[in-house]
Amino acid sequence: MSKTSSPIGDALAASVPMVRTLNLAFEEVSAERAVLRLPDQPDFHNHIGGPHAGAMFTLAESASGAIVLAAFGEQLARAVPLAVRSAIEYKKVAKGAVTATAELGRPAAEVVAELDAGGRPEFPVRVAITREDGAVTGEMEIVWTLRLNQ
């Protein structure tokens, strides 16, 4: 089961099976930053003994989702957050536990103002994936939108 330290982590662990499957730990979640950790688990290793690329993708995407919920949780009664597109770069070999740190690429107030004006705002979330020695093993950008409920 996932280790969570925030209501958002609890909500994601309850509603997103992959978060539970990978045992993601929510170390920090705020509207400014989300930090999630993927523990070292042999069941999710790749052919060279590190975390599988798919597990790292899920870690990064989950970190982006956590910050989106923290930043825009007050909008959930009228809009649903949806991932629009993503790109990931694997930069160095990862071994052991890895951590994903997500940050919003646009001010939340600007996104909400666009939503208030009837738009469907898009905003990037940038995520750095690091191994325990601090080296960046991957970088991901996920573009999200807030779609008004119909």
From TrEMBL:
CDD domains registered for this protein in UniProt: PaaI_thioesterase (cd03443)
InterPro entries, sorted: DUF4442, HotDog_dom_sf
SUPFAM superfamilies assigned: Thioesterase/thiol ester dehydrase-isomerase
Residue ranges the record marks as coiled coil: none
Pfam families: DUF4442 (PF14539)
Gene3D superfamilies: Hotdog Thioesterase
Protein name, entry field: DUF4442 domain-containing protein
Organism: Streptomyces gamaensis
